[in-house]
Amino acid sequence: MRLIPLCLTVLLFACDSQVPTNAQDINQESGDVYTYSRANRDGIGKVYMGREISHVMGHLGAGWLERPERERDERTDLLIDNLNLDPDHVVADIGAGTGYFAFPMSARVPQGKVLAVDIQPEMLAIIESRKQVGLSEASWQNIETVLGTEDNPNLPDNAVDLIYMVDAYHEFAYPREMGEAIVRALKPGGRIALVEYRMEDRTVPIKRLHKMSEAQSRKEMAAIGLTWVETKDILPQQHLMIFEKQISAP
Predict the structure, then answer these.
(1) Looking at residue 199, what is its pLDDT?
(2) Tally of structural domains, the chain
(3) Is residue 7 in some structural domain?
């Protein structure tokens, strides 16, 4: 199981799960925040807060992330327009993949930067290659690639104004550890934009384990200390959920 970006539907590149064989292994690995069961076809058998973690799609599926109809299905423009960005914001794209969102996002923070995080070097290489091809696009040069791990995005503490995760969080192999690291990276008052296909909507043609309900999302974000701000169901098939890191009292 590996954390990767923006994995959507077809998910033809699923990984085999490896499930600990006894309770001692489970306790040592997870500190009791995970349980294990027989894996569903699209999952890894690892359960967090009642939700089985899904398989992921590897870099061989990069073409799927850039499919022509994606803009129609996901409305990148609506998503970015509703993130309340300032020109000097530092933004992190967790599970950046091929940079599908990082590139248009970079133009919205011309005095800031976009930290494109992925755990696959192959995905980050695609982003760097695209930057070189588009050297005339000055805004693209404020995109910085960051190699993360399954449980840590490797971002500096208290440094990021907004972190967004688009169709990626449900695939995190270590959602509690990754979530805690993400919160550390946020500035006080910083926000997380969590975008996931709507579990509540049966008409959304996505496999069940690759959707998340608003209730489940809010429960998991609360577990890492984030406060729900609002949910904007403005996208054709996804929730856009905003959470905030509280400013500590002096």
Answers:
(1) 96
(2) 1
(3) no
